[in-house]
């Protein structure tokens, strides 16, 4: 078995610079139904975050004594001998604040969903005239 053996050289540093693949894509159409579904879900999430943030902010402000301090000042300023004045603490109670925040969140969900869907229709109309938005995607290997 004493034949000549071929020796292979190990490949060291075959490529020194990474190759980048690029693709040019064009967003020619946005499906309004898909836009409506996604914007509805994102609006719901934003509405829930708004209600939770308002509740946490109210609890922190109540724990700091902001409502009692400001409420005392307002009741002194608006009160007279026969009436106590405006009661800020009962007006800005947690249930009232959460109901108001929930109403604003529901209005936000409806408006954001409608505006995003309308934006998809307007984008489709304008993309028909100018061809859409061109994107260049790159992938490093």
Automatic annotation (TrEMBL):
<feature type="transmembrane region" description="Helical">
    <location>
        <begin position="38"/>
        <end position="61"/>
    </location>
</feature>
<keyword id="KW-1133">Transmembrane helix</keyword>
<keyword id="KW-0472">Membrane</keyword>
<feature type="region of interest" description="Disordered">
    <location>
        <begin position="1"/>
        <end position="21"/>
    </location>
</feature>
<feature type="transmembrane region" description="Helical">
    <location>
        <begin position="97"/>
        <end position="123"/>
    </location>
</feature>
<feature type="domain" description="DUF3566">
    <location>
        <begin position="21"/>
        <end position="139"/>
    </location>
</feature>
<keyword id="KW-0812">Transmembrane</keyword>
<dbReference type="InterPro" id="IPR021949">
    <property type="entry name" value="DUF3566_TM"/>
</dbReference>
<feature type="compositionally biased region" description="Basic residues">
    <location>
        <begin position="8"/>
        <end position="21"/>
    </location>
</feature>
<protein>
    <submittedName>
        <fullName>DUF3566 domain-containing protein</fullName>
    </submittedName>
</protein>
<dbReference type="Pfam" id="PF12089">
    <property type="entry name" value="DUF3566"/>
</dbReference>
């Amino acid at each position: 078995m004493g034949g000549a053996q071929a020796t292979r050289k190990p490949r060291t540093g075959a490529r020194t610079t990474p190759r980048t693949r690029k693709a040019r894509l064009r967003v020619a159409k946005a499906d309004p139904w898909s836009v409506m579904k996604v914007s509805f879900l994102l609006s719901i999430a934003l509405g829930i975050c708004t209600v939770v943030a308002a509740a946490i902010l109210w609890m922190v402000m109540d724990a700091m004594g902001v409502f009692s301090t400001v409420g005392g000042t307002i009741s002194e300023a608006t009160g007279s001998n026969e009436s106590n004045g405006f009661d800020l603490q009962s007006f800005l109670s947690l249930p009232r604040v959460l109901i108001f925040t929930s109403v604003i969140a529901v209005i936000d969900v409806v408006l954001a969903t409608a505006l995003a869907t309308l934006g998809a229709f307007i984008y489709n109309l304008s993309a028909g005239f100018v061809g859409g938005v061109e994107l260049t995607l790159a992938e490093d290997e």
